[in-house]
Amino acid sequence: MDRPGKVWLGVLGPLEVTSDGRAVDLPAGQVRTLLASLLVAFGRPVLMDDLAERLWPDRMPVRVRATVYTYVARLRGLLGHDLIRTTAGGAYLIAAEPEQVDLWRFRDLLAAARRAGSAEAELALLRDALRLWRGQPFHGMESAWLTREVVPGLVDEWFAAVERRIDLESAHADPGAVVAELRDLVASGPTRESLWLRLIEALRQSGRRVEALDAYQQIRAALADEFGIDPGDALQRLHRAILVEGVGQSDAAPPVPAPAGPVRQLPHDIVGFCGRSELEQLNRLRPEADGDAAQPTTVVAIDGAPGVGKTTIAVHWAHRIAHAYPDVQLYLNLRGYGPGEPVSPSAAAETLLRALGVPTEAIPAATDERSALLRSVVASRRTLLLLDDARDAEQVRPLLPGGDSLVVITSRSQLRGLSIRDGARRVTLDRLPVDEALAMLASTVGADRVAAEPVAAGRLVDLCDRLPLALAIVAERASRADSLREVVHALLDEKARLDVFGAGEDDPHTDLRAALSWSYRALDGDAAAMFRKLGLHPCNDIGLEAAAALADLSTRQVGRSLDRLAAAHLVEHRRAQRFEVHDLIRRYATERAEHDEPAADRTAAVRRMLDWYLHTAVSADNTLMPHRVRDFVAPYEATVPVARFATTTEALAWFEREYQCLRTVVDWAAGNGWVGHAWRIAMAMTTFFDAVIPWQDGTEFYDSVLRAAERAAEHAGQAYLLNSLGCIFLDREDWHRAAAYFRRSLARFQQVEHARGMAMVLGNHGRAQGHIGDHERARRDIIRAINLYRQLRSRRGVAQNLDNLGTTFARSGAQRRAIVCFLQASEITREIGDTHTLAMIQHQLGLSYAAIGEMANAIHAFRESIAAFHEIGIRRWEALVLVDLGKAVHQAGHPGLARQVLAAALTTLTWIGDPRSHEISAIVDGAQPT
Question: DSSP string spanning 96-164?
């Protein structure tokens, strides 16, 4: 295969990359998935959120952007900076020519084949395209997203191209010449009816009638076993034709009336239609005719949320391809979702028959007979049928024609049954990409205004959820406003936001609230109740167990309701057991909850949700640090089933998965009268912050909860939160601010007479004073803490403050006295099995040994600390101790090994976005450890 110079990227087989003809050794895992994600976007920008979902469908890291940036940097180092570019919106794209990517070249050749002026030219282009394939796309890559969402579509394209090539080759050759190849193909796609149709027809044309009938029985059995369905209409008609050929019977239908001339019913196209990359996907699904050669009926189902633009893209695409269907172009609004009743299949069939010129007296009464007549009328005509706003598969199925037809269906339902039983090819519309949404806004308000107010324009697009209907409504309003900022301000009032998306009483179809109401009214009782409950949740991304707590139902019951909401595009099933509700839809769910749910029921649901987050966070925190006392939870009993975690890995994974939602829930609870839950959930997150997230990220978080606790006079909450803020500034080495927070915390704990809290803060205040240099006061506070903990019979507290005392001695230069304290503390933690505290103590012990030059003892202590942190899954501290180990190894005379240790630390510090990663990176790159 000829490959251009510079970079060449192959995905139609195992992932293969060359640079100037030499193979590039790509790292395994996520770097490859990132590259694949950019390549299948065909040069379009891919948003950070989309990359994250593809890279981590189940467990997303906390510092997503930092991790993605690391992967991008590695790819740029291998492939060149110019190949992977960043857009103004922070998205990434591959800037390559089609000749550099086999998939892009394949698509270009297929497009050229469709435009070819002769069968010979088309066949040559198809052969060139198919030669690019080296095997299964992305073979050998372990990516659930690729396996589920990308590879099947690419394989379908390959099958379609092969089928078209076979059609062209067999048009002027012996039909039997393709039988062997078709048999191989049906073995690869045993339920692909279009392949069997060609095989059976080739056998029939070759005079091999018995083999043709046997092949039909094979596909019939395969479909029954796999899906419990019969072959489609085209195969059944071919089967009947073969059966009657031997006895002189005719399979032809009786004559039916025909229309006087061509039928042209498509609605007018949209002026200024913007973007929509899905048009390319639709074009690939379109059947290609060759002269008089008949094609089986193709059904394309376009589904998506209310207001996502299904009708607009369907009508636009229908106009683009209408020339290929010169005989009949039909349109029918099935009114599946709207103020009235849906059109019945019988009435719809009658309407279509009338449009085709069938007299009223010739239209039978029974639905089945009308359906059969419809198929007969269009059997010999190239027909394009656009069925808009379908309710479900049962409404559509009787309307599907036979012959050389293309049926385009739009629906808010996913029409899964139509896909399984009737072979419909689904195209799901998502929200517009940012660039297309901005273009749509500019098409109404003017590109100059968007350019003049880029921040406001971007905010408008976000507040509209990038939904075309919402954008159209807001763009019309913005065209009359003095500035885009004025419209943004109107949309910032969350409770009144949907009011902005009303276009007046003259046209309910351009009112977003009305559009959402039609989908809501179509739900069954359980799904509608679940939808209302979701409106009480402050997050867009909701886990199955949290939804179950809201609804007070089992996860199985809630899963069924959420699946129905996903089928109606009111939620999106993004990842395993997680569902996303877009802002505008969630706002409508909130309205329905406030209108339809009694206030007491709403309060009970919110309490269950907050209880679930609180007690599950405490359960995860207890797994991370089992010896920690959590008496702050005592007044709040669990009212819902709470998740339990067998390992620290599971607990950390839960925190990472729920992190953003936990922060949103805490902020919402603090501002909506649930301050007790807010500060307690925040306290249950402190170990996770210490384990994974740099403490400075928590300053604003804990400070906002503290202000809420102060307004609510939650003195115990203030005491705990002030201590947490002191720990944050202690970690930031702002000793004086840390000490000030600890003093305020101590006063609150004294106010509520909380002895354990007083002991905790005295120890922390002593640590701060030791850093400030007041070693006498530091020792005095820490010894008070030790005495309090002894009175409380808390051996863990004693051990922690022996560690604090040792640290204070170490800072004053008394390393030997510090080592004695650390050894005493280590002994206690080993006896009680407190791995977390042991890990912290061994770290300090290692530092003291290193300070007096006992490197062997220091390295031993550091390794024990690292092993303990690794055992409990505290990645951040494991990496920080690795840094000190690397420095000790270097001082012991092993610089090469030291760099290896520091490189291991750098990987984790970069992953969590720790600012110290820059310092360590410089050391790894050649500087001396300090």
Answer: --GGGBHHHHHHHHHHHHHH-SSHHHHHHHHHHHHTT--SSTTBT---HHIIIIIHHHHHHHHHHHHHH
